Amino acid sequence: MKKIYVPMIRYGDKEFDEGFIGWGFQSTEEQNRDAQAVLNLVPKKNQTILDIACGLGSYHKVWLDAGHSVVGTDLSETFIMMAKNTNAAAEYRVENFYDLEEESKYNLVTMIDTPVEDEDVPRNAYRALKPGGSFVFQISNPEYNHMRGRLMENRRTWTENEDRTFLLTRNEYNEDIDRWEYEEWNLNVETGDIVIEHHFSSNLTFTRMVDILLAVGFCSVSFLDADGRPYTTSKEEPKNYFCVALKGIS
Ligand SMILES: C[S@@+](CC[C@H](N)C(=O)[O-])C[C@H]1O[C@@H](n2cnc3c(N)ncnc32)[C@H](O)[C@@H]1O
Questions:
Q1: Fewest CB atoms within 10 A around its CB: which of 32, 83, 113, 191?
Q2: Does the CB atom of residue 11 touch ligand 1 within 6 A?
């Protein structure tokens, strides 16, 4: 019996990325709603926008049509190639967001449907912004997770697939630290191989996020829904808030 460990999320791996296109992105409707929300939250004209982890850049059309210029970057060559084919007027490049080194170039840096997990991305975004620019990204609403997480806690399923492999899944949620964990064991009874895929996501709290953003230099931080209403505790919806962090003028 052989155990083969494979990370569940493998952005940048061509085969994974091609499969991800079928299930991983938000619907066009959700993407367009988020793209419009960004423009409403930062209502300035003729902005130079850098969208990091842009994926297919499907929502860039909304920004281009509104008169902004758009640069999109992503780890995945597959996604960037498709983005280039969709939006000829935007500029794209394959880039890991941890390697972003540009300075004072953009009015707006965005990151949609991709969690900020540490202070490196905010630091790079801050550096890339011109004074007076904003970093806009999404952050999970902890109340939304707490409700659904509790339902998923300790959930295990055991399925027999058509190809006579057996799939064991485990889903855990730790409410105290807002951490999701998901694991699949795919057992092939003929070869004896067990392929184990594991993924976890840990969401930063709003207070921790404020600390990080202020520490890297931003001068003001707000958490708003897509209509510009501020975050209030104990509201289960929306799933994500937008965090708007402003780089000061001097
Ligand atoms: C859920 S998708 C969201 C894509 C896009 N922002 C959207 O809303 O459709 C997450 C994206 O993050 C990208 N990504 C993950 N880690 C990255 C990294 N270290 N540097 C650049 N892009 C990354 C992935 O390739 C993927 O396109």
A1: 191
A2: yes
**In 42-190, alpha helices (H):** 60-65, 77-86, 120-128, 142-152
For residue 111, with 0-12 CB atoms within 10 Å meaning exposed, 13-18 middle and 19 or more buried, which class applies? buried
Query: Scanning the structure block, which residue is given the tokens 């409707």?
Result: 29
Please state the atom number of ligand 1 nearest to the C-alpha of residue 56: 9
Question: Please, where are the H alpha helices in 56-198?
Answer: 60-65, 77-86, 120-128, 142-152
Q: Please tell me the distance between residue 113's alpha carbon and the centre of ligand 1 in angstroms.
A: 8
Tell me the CA–centroid distance for residue 25 and ligand 1, in Å: 10
**Angle of CA points 213, 219, 220, to nearest 5°:** 80
How far, in Å, from the CA of 21 to the mean position of ligand 1? 12
Q: What is the pLDDT of residues 51-81, one digit of tens each?
A: 999 999 999 999 999 999 999 999 999 999 9
Is this structure's pTM higher than 0.90? yes
pLDDT tens for each residue of 86-102? 999 999 999 999 999 99
